[in-house]
Specification:
CATH topology of the largest domain: Trna Endonuclease, Chain: A, domain 1
Radius of gyration: 21 Å
Number of helices: 7
Strand content: 25-35%
CATH class of the largest domain: Alpha Beta
């Protein structure tokens, strides 16, 4: 049936399922013969299982949502598999904020890229297990109705040891026939660049930069050179444009918190000459793969 519920409308959970179908007890509900998947987020209830540590609205506008499964490692089955398959099957994710028996419709979402990450989370017994954190991007929604990420507002930059991202086919290609090659290129690029810099004795770190009540996590921070990196899987214009906006945002907020940081972009190949000129005008350093090593690019070359 057509979707008839308006954003901000409040109804009982029972009424939602009476109208659209689906499993009433599941956080991810899949009505039969429907183009919609119903997803319910309950901040108060989720806090009992540590979900609030990794679930919430991020500064970049994406909603991080913990997959289903309360005991043991979560897996890409049942509701989690349905959510992961939503784009391929042309289904819309309908997100509700639940409060006991009531549910407020927040809006329509789709999966971001990447669609999910693995994260260590507690289960209902308190044991640490592998959890799935889905990245939900709003299509038409009022995201201010959603809880922010984290229990407390972060007021300082948090640093930790940098570790290369995973880029093995199993982690990036969970469904037969799905294409995660592009992300594999990006993650492998970060890993190779990080190993190259570490071999030169550089101190690489991960940063969590607070912005309002949320935080952002750049791909890599080189503490030796004070360079803060955003990596992209392609040197095509649209990716370089996105990288410019992201890395300027990251460094601006890092500088506001008294951290010396210089913007830098990491690409798999050389971008268009005018883009190098644009980056130079914004004091953004650009690095690209050069055989088994990496080179800093110049618009004058």
């Amino acid at each position: 049936m057509d979707w008839t519920t308006g954003i901000g409308e409040v109804m009982t959970r029972r009424a939602v399922h009476a109208l659209y179908g689906g499993q009433q007890q599941q956080g991810i509900s899949t009505p039969a013969n429907s183009t919609d998947i119903l997803v319910f987020t309950d901040p108060a209830k989720g806090a009992k299982y540590g979900y609030d540590l990794h679930e919430g609205a991020r500064e970049d506008g994406i909603y991080a949502y913990t997959g289903e499964g309360r005991l043991g490692d979560q897996s890409l089955t049942r509701g989690n598999l349905a959510l992961l398959s939503s784009v391929r099957l042309g289904k819309t994710i309908r997100l509700f904020r639940a409060d006991r028996t009531l549910a407020t419709y927040v809006g329509a979402f789709t999966l971001d890229d990447p669609p999910y990450i693995w994260q260590a989370i507690p289960d209902e017994s308190g044991a640490i297990r592998d959890g799935i954190i889905f990245n939900l991007a709003p299509i038409e929604a009022e995201t201010d109705r959603l809880p922010s990420m984290g229990r407390e507002q972060v007021i300082r930059i948090e640093t930790s040891e940098w570790k290369p991202p995973l880029f093995d086919p199993y982690a990036l290609n969970p469904l037969p026939g799905s294409e995660r090659t592009a992300s594999r290129i990006e993650f492998e690029l970060q890993a190779a660049f990080g190993a190259w810099r570490q071999a030169k004795g550089h101190d690489l770190r991960r940063l969590r930069i607070p912005i309002g009540g949320n935080f952002v996590e750049p791909d890599l921070f080189d503490a030796t050179t004070s360079e803060l990196f955003e990596a992209k899987k392609s040197a095509a214009r649209k990716y370089v444009r996105t990288a410019i906006g992201q890395v300027l945002d990251y460094t601006h907020n890092a500088n506001l918190l008294k951290m010396e940081a210089r913007p830098a972009i990491l690409l798999p190949s050389r971008p268009a000459h005018d883009l190098l000129g644009l980056c130079a005008s914004l004091s953004i350093r650009v690095y690209a793969r050069d055989g088994s090593q990496f080179s800093r690019l110049s618009a004058s070359e």
